[in-house]
Fold this sequence. Notes:
By secondary structure, the protein is an all-alpha fold. The protein has helices at 7-34, 38-59, 63-81, 114-131, 143-168, 188-193. α2 runs parallel beside α4 and α3 (63-81) packs parallel to α5 (143-168). The N and C termini lie far apart (95 Å).
Amino acid sequence: xxxxxxxxxxxxxxxxxxxxxxxxxxxxxxxxxxxxxxxxxxxxxxxxxxxxxxxxxxxxxxxxxxxxxxxxxxxxxxxxxxxxxxxxxxxxxxxxxxxxxxxxxxxxxxxxxxxxxxxxxxxxxxxxxxxxxxxxxxxxxxxxxxxxxxxxxxxxxxxxxxxxxxxxxxxxxxxxxxxxxxxxxxxxxxxxxxx
Length: 195
């Protein structure tokens, strides 16, 4: 008598957990497949940003959601531009940024990797977009003040970050393969084959 009716909710919960696990694995599979396609990921995110901007412009509201989104993106940007081990905060036995011209070159390792940066921004815009469909998040506010405050915060934050880059002599961007001004190889051999 104890087993009667007791299996129904537990099997439904187990089936729901199994389905959630399968969807999680499928989502992770597509995330893993998108990892090497950096340009396409950022283009997709840019389209999402445009859709969000059009939604906010069309509705003429949700400025507080947009402001919160801007603060969150600024926080992510700081992590993206910062080294993994900050010489000012924590002395480490691991790789450090070179501080003198005679120091050995060490590659720049970000505190927030590019993929996690992209994923966090994309997820934030998706959540903000969903929030624009609920009127409780549309708090009436004078948006020019929020915009001015965010711009001042952005300028001060980026100034501090750039000063940190100058002080510790690192560049958080890879500007392509470094080329050296050595000898040029003659292309005469390839042109003589064409004859």
